[in-house]
Amino acid sequence: MKYGRVKRTWQFRKIYKEGAKYFDNLFVLYVLPNNTQETRIGLTVTKKVGISVQRNRIKRLIREVFRSLSEISPGNDLVIIARKAALNLKYSQVQASLNRLLYRAGILRSGRN
User: Fold this and answer.
1) Model pLDDT, residue 113
2) What is the rounded CA–CA span in Å between residue 24 and residue 29?
3) CB contact set of 31 (below 8 Å; sequence gap of 6+)
4) What is the C-alpha separation between 25 and 78, in angstroms, rounded?
5) Domain residue spans of the chain
6) Predicted local confidence at residue 52, as pLDDT
7) Contact of 55 with 49, CB cutoff 8 Å
8) Which of 2, 10, 91, 89 is nearest to 41 (CA)?
9) Are strands 4-5 and 27-33 parallel, antiparallel or unpaired?
10) Rounded to 5 degrees, what are φ and ψ at 110?
11) What pTM did the predictor assign?
12) Which of 81, 11, 77 lies closest to 38 in space, CA to CA?
C-alpha cells in the first residue's frame, strides 16, 4: 500500500491537537481521521534522539515497516514520534512496537501483534 505524507507544520499541529494519542516506551502515535481513502504519515525524530545519521535510520525503519503493512484501514493521518529509546532498534523491534500501537488505535485490520 502506498502512503501519502504529512509535510506541513499546520498539518502536524492539527493532528497533535485533535488526534488521539497512543504511546509506549519507543514511539508516540497520533491518529486523526481525514475523511479520505488515503492514509498519510508524518515522522518526527528530534535532535534529542541522536545525530542525523541515527535519526535518518530510525525514519527509514519506520517507513519500511509501513511499506510492509497491508492491513491498515485507510482514511487516517498518522504522526509517529520516535523516542530516545528507539535509537538502536532492529527492524523486528520497530515492527512489533508499531503493530501494537496501531492495533491499540484500532486502525490495524488484523489482530496479530
Assistant:
1) 47
2) 9
3) 19, 20, 22, 76, 77, 78, 105, 107
4) 18
5) 4-105
6) 95
7) yes
8) 2
9) unpaired
10) -90, 160
11) 0.90
12) 77
Are 33 and 76 in contact by the 8 Å Cβ rule? The answer is yes
The partner residues of 28 in beta bridges, in order of sequence, read: 23, 81
Give the pairing of strands 20-23 and 4-5: unpaired
- With b for 16 or more beta-carbon neighbours within 10 A and e for fewer, the 76-85 pattern comes to bbbbbbbbee
Please give the mean pLDDT across all residues of the chain: 91
Encoded amino acid at 44, one letter: T
pLDDT digits (tens, 9 = 90+) for 39-57: 999 999 999 999 999 999 9
Task: Find, among 58, 70, 50, 44, the residue nearest to 97 by Cα.
Answer: 58
Helix, strand or coil, per DSSP, at residue 19: coil
**pLDDT for res 99:** 93
Rounded to whole angstroms, how far apart are CA atoms 78 and 106?
12
What's the number of CA atoms in the CB half-sphere (13 Å) around residue 32? 18
Task: For 83-113, write each residue's pLDDT tens digit.
Answer: 999 988 999 999 999 999 999 999 987 655 4
CATH class of the domain comprising 4-105: alpha beta
